[in-house]
């Protein structure tokens, strides 16, 4: 049995024969899609574009305390704006989701509103000319959208959300600048207090080890040198005094303690002188009277014989009884000098002992200096580190206060609405062209399936070749289709109806395009402006 291979003419005949089986499902699918597009509630969207502007004063002059990437700060702002209290305030202000309040809980409504709010960042590839870095994507702006059923409400809510973003940004920046300044101030106060405690500890330590401090080590060494020099001088002085003492001792041994021999010699001289005067003058002459008086005193003194002088063997100075004092002036003079020398020797010995004590004190100070220096260096190092912290915190505190003023005057990084939310002209949902296309393709698919099903289930013979294949008998003749006047009239009527249907469909498509896709007046103006 030969296969019935269909040609393109066979398929054209099938389309002509089954045209209504194909057209009716297409029309029904398109109509259903049209009804669905009309039934669905239109959803409008209003979008605001907000630009992220850098601070007016260069960063080299004033460095802000707000850190982090722009995307991170925007996400934080988004979470603050999307908080339940703020969204509830907007819902109550504009009376949103009235039809859902009776069906859903407030948390579910808030979740729906969060889905209706769209947040998106706008990035640009920017290169750093200073660092010669390849262009990297940097967030320079962001968009904020809201979707809803009423156009004016959508626009108002989008504007309110934009204002909230701007207000929250300024509020957060001022709060963070204030917190940074306050924190640095408190830290500076605490470190300054610690520095004062360390200074007090160092002062007490210096007071306790005032002579053992490392900076006095050289002075202590110099004091030891000076003390030893002074001791050498005193020892030399003591040696000299000892020599004087020996000399005076030797002199005292050779000089008698009484003056008898001298008085007798003097008495003889006076008597000889009296004889000479008496030969010249009378007894009443003053010189004679004076000589006689002196002679009488000497004779009277010579009548009193002094006791023997005693010396203590090995004694440093002679000792006499109260009634047996030496009367020799030379002896008395040497004895007084000996006593004076011995007093000086005692003074020098005391000075040497004091110098030795001072030297020992200096040596103890030098010995204790390394231990004191180690502890002192630890205190000084702690003090220096603390002072560096204070200086650093003071610098950062000043910068934080300047940054706080920058944020307070709104001269830092800020948001600017460059494209405010506008009244939407057409809904973004439902997507009417897509719905209509889906309905159209669905109708075409159903029509093709119905046509194929009817064609393959129809066993009618429609051409000689098919008859030959089925009967295996030769075809003698074919009778053509007989077309009458009635058939011609019916064909004309069908053509008119088809033309009218096509016109109606075209009109409906234009109406749908005008209301759901683009305004025809605007489209015509764009076309004429482009080509004319």
Gyration radius from CA atoms, angstroms: 67 Å
Instruction: Tell me the overall shape.
Output: rod-shaped
Number of distinct helices? 15
Classify the secondary structure makeup into a structural class: alpha+beta
The H/E string reads HHEHHHHEEHHHHHEHHHH
Given as residue ranges, the uncertain stretches (5+ residues, pLDDT < 50) are: 305-324
Main sheet: strands, sense, barrel = 4 strands, antiparallel
Q: What's the N-to-C terminus distance?
A: 66 Å
Q: Please, could you describe this protein's structure?
A:
This protein is an alpha+beta fold. Among the domains are: 8-181 and 405-461, no CATH class; 480-532. The chain is 68% helix and 8% strand. It has helices at 8-17, 19-39, 70-81, 84-94, 98-101, 106-116, 151-208, 217-254, 260-280, 286-302, 329-408, 432-457, 464-471, 485-517, 520-531, and strands spanning 44-53, 117-128, 133-148, 414-419. Strands 2-3-1-4 form a four-stranded antiparallel beta sheet. The protein is rod-shaped, with a radius of gyration of 67 Å. The relative contact order is 0.14. Residues 305-324 have low confidence and may be disordered.
Keywords:
532 residues; alpha+beta; four-stranded antiparallel beta sheet; 15 helices; 4 strands; rod-shaped
Topology:
Blueprint: H1 8-17, H2 19-39, E1 44-53, H3 70-81, H4 84-94, H5 98-101, H6 106-116, E2 117-128, E3 133-148, H7 151-208, H8 217-254, H9 260-280, H10 286-302, H11 329-408, E4 414-419, H12 432-457, H13 464-471, H14 485-517, H15 520-531
Antiparallel strand pairs: 1-3, 1-4, 2-3
Helix pairs in contact: 2-12, 3-7, 7-11, 8-11, 9-10
């Amino acid at each position: 049995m030969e296969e019935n291979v269909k040609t393109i003419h066979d398929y054209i005949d099938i389309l002509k024969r089954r045209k209504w089986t194909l057209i009716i499902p297409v029309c029904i699918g398109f109509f259903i899609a049209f009804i669905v597009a009309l039934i669905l509630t239109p959803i409008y969207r209003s979008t605001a574009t907000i630009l992220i502007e850098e601070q007016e004063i260069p960063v080299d002059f004033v460095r802000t305390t707000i850190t982090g990437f722009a995307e991170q700060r925007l996400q934080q702002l988004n979470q603050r704006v999307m908080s339940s209290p703020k969204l509830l305030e907007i819902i109550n202000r504009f009376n949103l989701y009235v039809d859902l309040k009776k069906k859903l809980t407030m948390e579910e409504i808030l979740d729906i509103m969060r889905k209706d709010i769209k947040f998106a960042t706008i990035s640009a590839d920017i290169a750093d000319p200073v660092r010669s870095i390849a262009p990297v994507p940097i967030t320079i702006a962001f968009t904020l959208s809201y979707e809803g059923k009423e156009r004016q409400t959508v626009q108002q809510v989008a504007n309110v959300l934009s204002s909230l973003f701007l207000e929250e940004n300024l509020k957060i920046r001022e709060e963070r600048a204030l917190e940074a300044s306050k924190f640095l101030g408190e830290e500076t106060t605490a470190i300054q207090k610690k520095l004062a405690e360390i200074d007090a500890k160092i002062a007490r330590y210096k007071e306790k080890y005032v002579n053992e401090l490392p900076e006095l080590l050289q002075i202590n060494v110099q004091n030891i040198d000076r003390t030893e020099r002074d001791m050498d001088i005193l020892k030399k002085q003591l040696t000299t005094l000892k020599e004087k003492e020996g000399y005076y001792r030797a002199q005292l041994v050779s000089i008698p303690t009484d003056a008898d021999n001298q008085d007798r010699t003097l008495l003889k001289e006076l008597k000889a002188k009296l004889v000479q005067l008496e030969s010249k003058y009378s007894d009443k002459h003053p010189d004679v009277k004076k000589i006689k008086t002196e002679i009488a005193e000497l004779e009277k003194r010579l009548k009193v014989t002094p006791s023997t002088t005693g010396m203590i063997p090995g004694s440093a100075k002679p000792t006499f009884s109260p009634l047996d004092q030496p009367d020799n002036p030379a002896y008395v003079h040497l004895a007084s000098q000996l006593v004076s020398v011995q007093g000086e020797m005692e003074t020098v010995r005391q000075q040497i002992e004091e110098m030795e004590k001072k030297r020992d004190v200096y040596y103890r100070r030098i010995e204790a200096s390394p231990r004191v220096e180690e502890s002192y260096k630890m205190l000084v190092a702690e003090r220096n580190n603390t002072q560096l912290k204070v200086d650093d915190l003071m610098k950062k505190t000043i910068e934080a206060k300047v940054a706080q003023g920058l944020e307070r005057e709104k001269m830092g990084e800020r948001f600017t609405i460059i494209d405010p939310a506008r009244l939407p002209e057409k809904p973004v949902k439902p997507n009417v062209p897509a719905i209509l296309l889906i309905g159209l393709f669905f109708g075409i698919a159903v029509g093709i399936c119905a046509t194929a099903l009817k064609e393959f289930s129809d066993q009618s013979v429609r051409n000689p070749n098919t008859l030959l294949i089925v009967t295996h008998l030769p075809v003698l003749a074919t009778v053509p289709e007989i077309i009458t006047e009635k058939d011609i009239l019916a064909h004309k009527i069908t053509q008119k109806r088809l033309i009218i249907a096509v016109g109606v469909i075209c009109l409906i498509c234009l109406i749908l395009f005008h209301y759901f896709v683009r305004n025809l007046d605007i489209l015509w103006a764009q076309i004429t402006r482009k080509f004319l």
